[in-house]
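Memo to structure team: turn this sequence into structure tokens by end of day. - J.P.
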Amino acid sequence: VAYLIFSFLLRRWHSLLSEMHLRVKERTADLQRELARRQQLEKEIAVVAEEERTRVGRELHDSLGQHLAGTGLLAETVANHLEKENNTIQPTARKVVRLIDQGIELTREIARGLYSSELDGDGLFSALESLSRSVGKGQVKCEFEHSGKPPRSKELATQVYWVAREAVTNALKHGQPQHVWIHLRTTDDYLRLKIEDDGRGLSQSTREDGIGLKVMAQRAELAGGRLRVEKAVQGTVVHCEIPLGEN
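Reply from structure team:
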């Protein structure tokens, strides 16, 4: 009798264990499908947001920028005419011209902050080279070097570009460097981006709570990669590594 009871309990235990494993497996599969669905949704949202960002940037550059440029030419003509007549309001007209020129430059800066026209043309290498030149116009020297071939995926190139741009912006804003270096390496399997500077480095609070770092990490994840930020002996190093097998 004891043997029969033991056999029954053993079979029951095996049955419950199998049922539990089956439920865990089904639940795990459900969670994996839900996670995949959310990741796909995040990617689709990011694509739509990037398209809208690009549209607004182009509108600023092409429409508002051109409108201001035309207004500036007209104001310049009026100022020249007033100058020939020695009109007393000529200095005011010149001030209007300067304000319009400042508005044009501000519009271009905002547009460049929203999209990179080079990504639509020669791709990621050209966009990062343009970013380097733009930074180099100031007091900070910025160098860009690359090896390998640029990624074929426009979405991937876009995410990598904005990671690099945000990293450079963070370095200039928080690190006060003299030099910034942008390194990009691509192989058949991986894309590796590294941005380093010789500034004072990011504070602990910025590394933990900085919105810019969180945005960079999210962009890296959307591209299927990961972001790592290190405090160097001097300055900060940002690493972004993305496998290219699925991109």
